[in-house]
Amino acid sequence: MSRRRFVRAVAAAGLLSSGTATWAAEGDAAAQPAARQRYRIGVCDWMILKRQQLGAFKWAAQIGADGVEVDMGSLGQRETFDNKLVDPAVRRQFLDEARKFNLDICSIAMSGFYAQSFAERPTAARMLQDCIDTMRWMNVKMAFLPLGVRGDLVKYPELRPAIVERLKAVGPRAEEAGVVIGVETALDAAGDVKLLDDIGSPAIRIYFNFANALQNGRDLCKELQILGKDRICQIHCTDEDGVWLQDNPRIDMHKVKQTLDDMGWGGWLVIERSRSAKNARDVVWNFGANTRYLKSIFQAK
């Protein structure tokens, strides 16, 4: 499938940004349910200490989020993820719990690859297929694939051919399933554009992380503009821990919103870190503050 046809099909299903035809007008945000707002706020289950646990939904509701990024489970040295969602009864519990708290599952995460090498693990193809299968079972259209510390293409450029080859192989399978794999890399935006061009599948996109630009001294808004709306599937709206987003002097969140508005992007902003050093383990306190702040900007009247 061509990139343009895939983008149209996915946007028509409300899975990617497609301008005002898909998302509510900004001025109507407060009058619309979360599902109709242009920007929605999520949290990562593993970062709220509920990795693939039902309790993530109750905590996300207390935090005030619109949805949860659910992890595939730990990886370690297994052939694939320790994924309890392969059990239909468990899947039903997760879907029922999300419905109970009026939350969405915004994406399925393969966070195990933060510390594992996607380029070198011999069963990586199986792991990605397991994720795609889980997405289909759960009716979730976005996945998060971090290349992590062992797949850092700035430090280890020699891994690039293997990463491109593996993502090229999974692209058609993701296209057939109607899902998108969002890749987080250590590259700058221009490097990400080149990586996507080399992979050549509309089902492989960038899961953009603010922290990647900020921690490397790049202009966050320029990075977003270089990538453009159709290459970004979701965003980790986060920085390193230490202070809440509202107290972070290197993020002008109003400028970020204006940049995304001007690009025509809309979708999930998922909070991963940005916990206060005063009490990093108080989940509701930290993520609640960040969620309220993001909603005050991205879901304001």
Poorly predicted regions are 12-33
What's the arrangement of strands in the largest beta sheet?
A: 1-2-3-4-5-6-7-8
| Main β-sheet description | 8 strands, parallel, barrel
How is the CATH topology named?
A: TIM Barrel
Number of strands: 8
Total helical segments: 10
Q: Name the CATH superfamily classification.
A: Divalent-metal-dependent TIM barrel enzymes
- Helices and strands, in order, run as HEHEHEHEHEHEHHEHEH
Q: By helix and strand content, what is the structural category? A: alpha/beta
Q: Ends: how far apart?
A: 39 Å
What is the CATH architecture assignment?
Alpha-Beta Barrel
The first-level CATH class name: Alpha Beta
* Morphology call: globular
- Rounded to an integer in angstroms, the radius of gyration calculated over CA atoms is 18 Å
**Average pLDDT value?**
90
**Percentage of helical residues?**
25-40%
Into which percentage range does the β-strand content fall?
A: 5-15%
Our count of domains comes out at 1
Overview of this protein structure:
This protein is α/β, with parallel strands linked by helices and 301 residues long. The chain has a single domain (3-298), classed as Alpha-Beta Barrel (TIM Barrel). Residues 12-33 have low confidence and may be disordered. The longest helix has 18 residues, at 160-177. It has helices at 3-12, 55-63, 88-100, 124-138, 160-177, 189-199, 210-215, 220-227, 253-263, 283-298; strands at residues 39-44, 67-71, 104-109, 142-146, 180-184, 204-209, 232-236, 267-271. β7 (232-236), α9 (253-263) and β8 form a beta-alpha-beta unit. The protein is globular and about 45 Å long.
